[in-house]
Amino acid sequence: MSDQNAISITVLSKTPITPTLFSFTTTRPDGFRFEAGQFVRLGVAPNELQVNQTAPKNAISPKIFRAYSVVSSPYDEHLEFFSVVVPDGAFTSQLQHLQVGDTLYLNPEPFGFLTLARYQEPAPQDLWLFATGTGLAPFISMLGDMMTWQNYRDIVLAYSSRTLAELAYVDKIADLQSQFGQFIDTPARLQFVPIVTREKADGCLNERIPTLIESGKLETHVGLSLNPATSHIMLCGNPQMVEDTKETLKSKGLTMNRRGVGNIAVENYW
Ligand SMILES: Cc1cc2nc3c(=O)[nH]c(=O)nc-3n(C[C@H](O)[C@H](O)[C@H](O)COP(=O)(O)OP(=O)(O)OC[C@H]3O[C@@H](n4cnc5c(N)ncnc54)[C@H](O)[C@@H]3O)c2cc1C
Questions:
Q1: Which residue's alpha carbon is nearest to atom 42 within ligand 1?
Q2: Cβ proximity of 83 and 94 under 8 Å
Q3: How big is the CA angle at 171 (ends 116 and 221), to the nearest 5 degrees?
């Protein structure tokens, strides 16, 4: 569906994380459905933002659209998104000024195949989720879906940022773990592995994801092996991390998931 059919949604809250990262929630249009891990196209009309209210109303202000993974689970009442601020970025230089009550536009067709339903073989056993920065978004959505906790025995979430302040959603991850731990008899065992690469941070590993996999440090840290016969592996975020990690995994015998078969699924953000 084209962006011309986008429908308006209203900003309900905004949470600053660092000067270049924030999350926000919006209304969810009736009938809008998606699978955990999918992305949508969000639009902003700069002239309609409250921050630009002094701009001449008749000035032409075409909407700008970008792909955004949905953070909220398919069952949540509202939609949530996690955004970077790119200096001079056409979209985020506007989006960073969002205020509660502002209007955004949602192309109501969900996109993307970074979903757990894509895996037919191997059967679900251990799930490895590797994210940098805002690439965490689809994995929070998956962890908000009870099926994820029911279907897997082990889940490893390795999430890398440059600084400790940029590690977002850490409390939310702990909340999801305790919430689903209560509802299900034998929920997946989640191991959250925070990684901070540009400063020392207590409790965090401090090397890039491909380096931690290549050296075997990650597997030793979690006490599990990446295994072609059992592992589902998803990579999301920075294209360099995705590319390097994919190649490292392939060198260990893991395969790209194609037509449902294989271990690795990826999504690049640029
Ligand atoms: C499938 C998909 C899902 C995406 N989901 C998200 C999401 O959930 N949250 C989000 O913030 N962005 C996401 N993006 C990126 C998003 O679409 C925009 O690129 C981003 O909002 C910046 O838009 P911009 O117009 O300001 O800058 P652009 O002109 O789009 O990008 C300029 C440059 O900024 C850098 N950049 C772009 N996105 C990011 C990012 N997320 N983190 C760090 N650097 C970046 C790259 O170097 C890029 O070349 C996604 C992209 C894709 C393809």
A1: 84
A2: no
A3: 65
Which uninterrupted H or E stretch holds 149? helix 146-151
CA distance 11 to 99: 7
Question: How far apart (Å, rounded) are the C-alpha atoms in residues 207 and 200?
Answer: 10
The predicted pLDDT at position 54 comes to 76
Strand locations in the chain, DSSP E?
A: 7-18, 21-26, 39-44, 64-69, 79-84, 103-111, 126-132, 154-161, 189-196, 231-237, 264-268
| Alpha-carbon distances, residue 187 vs 23, 44, 133, 179 (angstroms) | 28, 39, 27, 10
What are the distances in angstroms from CA 197 to CA 65, 82, 86, 167, 205? 31, 20, 20, 11, 8
Is 40 touching ligand 1 by the criterion CB < 6 Å?
no
Task: Give the closest residue to 48 by CA, choosing from 67, 61, 38.
Answer: 61
Q: Of all residues in the chain, what percent carry a pLDDT higher than 90?
A: 92
CA distances to 25, 48, 217, 252 from 99, in Å = 11, 11, 43, 47
Instruction: Give the predicted TM-score (pTM) of the model.
Output: 0.97
Give the integer Cα–Cα distance in Å for 56 and 62: 14
The ligand 1 atom nearest the CA atom of 81: 8
Task: Give the span between the Cα atoms of 131 and 156, in whole angstroms.
Answer: 11
68 lines ligand 1 (CB under 6 A): yes
Amino acid type, 3: D
